[in-house]
Amino acid sequence: AAKPGTAGLAFTPIAPVDRTVDAFTVPVGYRWQPIIRWGDPLFSSVPAFDFDHQTAQAQAGQFGYNNDYLDIIADPSGKTGVLVTNHEYVNPDLMFTATTDPEERRRRGEIYKAAMGMAVVEVKRRRVGDPWEYVVDGERSRRVTVESTFELTGPAAGSDLVKTAADPEGRWVKGTLGNCAGGTTPWGTVLSGEENFNGYFAWAADTAEQQRYSAGSTTSTETGWEQYDERFDAHSPGYVNEPNRFGYIVEIDPSDPTSTPKKHTAMGRFKHEGANVTIAEDGRVVAYMGDDERNDYLYKFVSKGRYTAATSTGARRKNMRLLSEGDLFVARFSGNSPAAEITGTGAMPSDGAFDGTGEWIALTRGGESVVPGMTTEQVLVYTRLAADLMGATKMDRPEDVEPNPHTGKVYLALTNNSRRTVATLDEVNPITGNRYGHVVELTETSGQAGETFGWSILLLCGDPAVTDYTYFAGFPKELVSPISCPDNVAFDSEGNLWISTDGAPSTIGYNDGLFRVPLEGDQRGNVQQFLSVPREAETCGPVIHDREGLVFVAVQHPGENGAVGAQTSYFPDYVASHSGDKVAAPRPSVVQVWKG
Ligand code: FEO
Ligand code: CA
Ligand code: CA
Ligand code: CA
């Protein structure tokens, strides 16, 4: 008999929720509650959230803004653990009323710095299986912000490309930016992708290298940091290289609040969505990574060293060096159907599938550049140019990419691509103007660390009632939940795929949500919506603890199109938090959902 899904999370799919509805919606029989919200204090020495009296000092000890990647890592007892999240960016219009006063803008700029980065927050519960609550003064709790120190590792650390006036060694970076998705490693650390870092700099686009990471020069930013903090002015002679110190995979050890987080240059520099790690047959570590830009690439990193499956301090220390040394590959996809059959309309090729083979093209081997005309340091700092030279396949915005722990197959969310033209169609990106995105299933054919793969399109997203080209792995399309703009992926204990979306409101008109997709048996491709986030929010960082009947999501940018005084969302409290006009500011929050 078909398995409709994991017993701990049996549910009847919710109906899609109209984009104007400001509600968090769960299946019948389920409840939801925030664990922690923007501004909640991590420590008793820090003031409670006070919308009208925000300070940078308070914010640096409070939960940050726009939580994205999320994991809930339980200790062996199951009753304590840590919540780890990214704080990708800020929404100034929802944090403050408008101002033009330069002094106040500077004061707020420091609050923005403190509201971004990452958080590690201790959590506890009475019994295994209960929902979690966060702990004030947790021993492992910490905030990492745009003012924290990071260590560069790998071949580009210490190179001339990453030296600045403040860091002549090129090894110590202040801050992390645009922390989007991520992954938790088998050795218990958390990886975080620095994605849209370019927008925080007054950007110099004088060289081809600079242009490849942000097309035009700019003189101002939304946060205004460049006005008073020289490191954000890339036109300044001492800080031309500052942007070269962002766009990496960050690794943080949530068990040690005094540890210095690392930025791994061996894993390349681009708009890193995130990184998900698995262990190859021979013990090497394999990380899959997307570059979230229209027409950019899918990457894979293979470590030189081998994973040690022990929990001793020595083993842990050794594992924490694995991502500093290894080889970087980029994906080239080939289709197996005649090009003439790829029409851009989703019409299936004559072999009945969008599928084919592919290869991982090396950018470094033995840790050294194999790209003609580029040094190792250049390959790792200007990775996009290296991939351009090697003929990688331009994809429809690679977001989260994650191996299924049950099968080793890799799932790649391609969120959308308005720049996919008729002239640039191929079998793996077969939809013109790809508005709703798609999901690719990739099967390694020469081992997890190998250099060949097979692939096929699992889902062509959209609302089947409106768009006729949607495809759900052959499952009857009249039975599935509409889905648009796949972004983050996760797996439950039975190997079902879970997908959270970003951008559905403006494409299919429904609020973003979280969806379960069985991958095996006769339910394969049956997209079922589990939850829906409030108006203008994005569903991020899904964590599926189905054996405990618990699901966690980070609700990012609720009410993003509103402003203070003209709010469009009042999530999650739906009460006044702003004494001035008695209207609540929406607060990005981590939410847990359980049966009850
Ligand atoms: Fe921050 Fe690619 O989403
Ligand atoms: Ca085919
Ligand atoms: Ca994302
Ligand atoms: Ca996103």
UniProtKB/TrEMBL annotation:
**One Pfam assignment:** PhoX
**SUPFAM superfamilies attached to this UniProt entry:** NHL repeat
Ranges in coiled-coil conformation: none
Enumerate the InterPro entries for this protein: PhoX (IPR008557), TAT_signal (IPR006311)
- Name of the protein: DUF839 domain-containing protein
